[in-house]
Amino acid sequence: MIQRIQTVYLFLGALSLASLGLFGFPWDSATATTHVWFVPSLIGLIVVTAGTALWSIFLYENREWQRTVVVGVQIGTVLLAGVLYGGLYLTSELAFMGSEGVVWDQATVLAVPILAYGFFFFARRGINHDIELVKSMDRLR
Question: For burial by CB atoms within 10 Å, which of 51, 57, 72, 90 has the most?
Fold first, then answer.
């Protein structure tokens, strides 16, 4: 299970999504105080998406099902990014440049969903590679 590269990518994607809880920007922003739906939907999407990504690690025996679950995780990551970016856009906080330059806390929070999606994309690519490898071995028999 751990020898497969997609396991590492799935774990890193889940870890990067879970790291959103460590930053104070989305939770202390004006969006969190203005829109009631922002924080609960963001927390729910983070928990569901990261939890599903960790659960999909243990589906290594059924690769087709694992690939389907990872596609669902990718869709969840896109929804999470939509809620995050949409909520910040509604209160005009969707920027990483401040008056004194780059605000690294905001820039990091805005980059995390993109990074997580990249990890999930590479995991799906590894799963597809395993599926093709098994199919090619079946043809040789």
Answer: 57
